[in-house]
Amino acid sequence: MIIKNYAAIIAKELDLQEKQVRNVLDLLASGATIPFIARYRKEATDSLDEVQIGNIRDLYGKLTEIDKRRTAIIDSMTAQGQLTADLEKKLNNALTMSELEDIYLPYKPKRKTRASVAREKGLEPLAVIILDQSKTNLQNIAYQYINSEKGVLTAEDALAGARDIIAEWVSEDAKIRERTRYIFAKESVITSKVVKEKEKEGEKYAGYFNSSEKLSKAPSHRILAMFRGEEEGFLKIGIAPNEELVLPLIQKQYLKAQNECSLQVEKAIQDSYKRLLQPQMETEMRKIYKEKADKEAISVFVTNLRQLLLAPPLGQKTVLAIDPGFRTGCKIVILDKQGKLLHNENIYPHPPRSEYKLASDKLKRLVLQYQVEAIAIGNGTAGRETEYFVRKIPFERDVVAIIVNESGASIYSASPIAREEFPDYDVTVRGAVSIGRRLMDPLAELVKIDPKSIGVGQYQHDVNQSLLQNSLETTVESCVNYVGVEVNTASKELLSRVSGVGPLLAKNIVTFRNENGPFDSRQGLKKVPRFGDKAFEQAAGFLRIRNAQNPLDSSAVHPESYHIVDKMAEKVGCTIPELIKNETLRKSIRLEEYTTSTVGLPTLKDIMQELAKPGRDPRTHFDVFEFDKTINSINDLKVGMVVPGIITNITNFGCFVDIGVHQDGLVHISNIAHKFINNPNDEVKLNQKVLVKVMSVEIDRKRINLSMKDAK
Description:
Blueprint: H1 4-14, H2 18-29, H3 34-40, H4 42-45, H5 50-79, H6 85-93, H7 97-104, H8 114-120, H9 124-132, H10 138-143, H11 155-171, H12 174-187, E1 189-194, E2 210-214, H13 220-231, E3 235-240, H14 247-254, H15 260-309, E4 319-323, E5 330-335, E6 341-347, H16 356-369, E7 374-378, H17 383-391, E8 400-404, H18 409-413, H19 416-421, H20 427-440, H21 442-446, H22 465-483, E9 485-486, H23 492-495, H24 502-516, H25 533-539, E10 543-544, H26 562-572, H27 576-581, H28 583-587, H29 601-612, E11 642-651, E12 654-658, E13 665-668, H30 674-678, E14 689-698, E15 703-707
Parallel strand pairs: 4-7, 7-8, 9-10, 13-15
Antiparallel strand pairs: 1-2, 1-3, 4-5, 5-6, 11-12, 11-14, 12-13, 14-15
């Protein structure tokens, strides 16, 4: 069971009820996944969503880490004989890692410091006398500590050593550290200057060569850019408030008189701040604001990835996919309605070979022969030229040509997954297959690619890679379970993302399917090796079996709730298929009659929504998009042009739009239409079709500035 205190702390921090938190923690401890808890345990959590449940999990993880550190500190201090009842109480009451470390700092075993050297010279009693500030004959007292054998040759040597000890005491004072930390967090300025003689080499950071802004208000993308510039050796970064905001509060606590001793204490305070406190707090601020910037950047990446994964699928169509190219030609593949590779070859419609007629005739023949319904064209090199070529071909049947974002396709084509899937084909064939399948079902294909390779992030190489990977993996799993997975056609990569499944069980499902034929019911999954009751509980609701004898097997209704639907059908005197088809019958059902101690209205409402549209794909309808036919390269752009585009990436400072010239243009946040800025429910989204106005074009630097304002 979960410690009560954790639930109380988390509930207070996240503004939730303690019972909600406790139930979530108990479910997580029992092995339940976040998608399962959010979808099928709403009564226990009072309908918390995946984000809230994830926040509870993450905060619980932080609290347990703090407790591990607390235990280690108490053990260390006990072993050293330093733990008192008062210190133990302070340690047990500390709620943050910084509080713990501040309490422990004076007792923490240290490497050699200036203060430790001074102590070895016997100068700590002198430091105590000076800090007391009651003596007036300091020089005479200092002479008494001269010891040539220990290297204390003069009275000033003795005073300097004593100041080093006082400086360390000041820097380890928990109250001083807390107050200084607060000022640093609220008032620090982050400054950036170019490293001498690096101006030309680091030109891309020119905007940060002499910049200064309040740290607490600096956008995350600017912080990450500055840190990257420093990491690459082009910038020198500083973080600190005006020292006049810090020094007086230290002086107020430590200066007790106006005499020789207090002058020494004042010097020690200044040294403590500049040599110890300021660098330590700057390091803390760097860590805190780097983590904050990382989280914001990862949040942007996660939002973009989710929108990309949930992009509308074309659906089960016969697709001809083209991976465009000039010198090496265009690789063509034909995929059947299930994405199976039927045919592949090359065409060379572009220079240097320019076999336009031969390529055109070949495409016409293939489209007719395989009854192709859509043509997917990668948006990389030669993408627009290939689109232009394809659209001019007079096909003998209706067929749509669609540009597909191919980011990450080359990563997939060289991956072990692709080699296992297509061992007899080279990377060009695999890349074209990925492009075609991405059109048919973006989610099913993109789960095979490392999310970081998809290219919809902001500074993804600069952020905490472990946190990024965990966040992206969680997002992929959330999307897969949100849509649901057809168990008889899904790849093991897609199945592995289903709640409670994982790679090993996914492989077992595919092997069992291949050896025994398609599953005809959800219950049949229990025949799969290692598919036990717990895995079935977590996974069954997210797995779909199309055309199963029980229509609920193709829906998001969990098998644990089938008996409820049976009772509903029996109550209104019909079969389950009739209940699904007949809205009048469903409306006659009073949900309150079916509530129990474990099943409440949230679950019952979900069941009714599923009965209305069982197995419905929650993704939006697919719309065909076309670029402006008159522009194919950056050289075709003119300031003032209004052209159609598609949003490919969203950042904190704006969004990038593909307008079909092999170089995305930036719509700065100030140039995003007001309706998107002021209405959070109508914000810009990945893959959104928009009209943009060309504001400026820098051909040499390949920069395009666009605006969504007045783009009509």
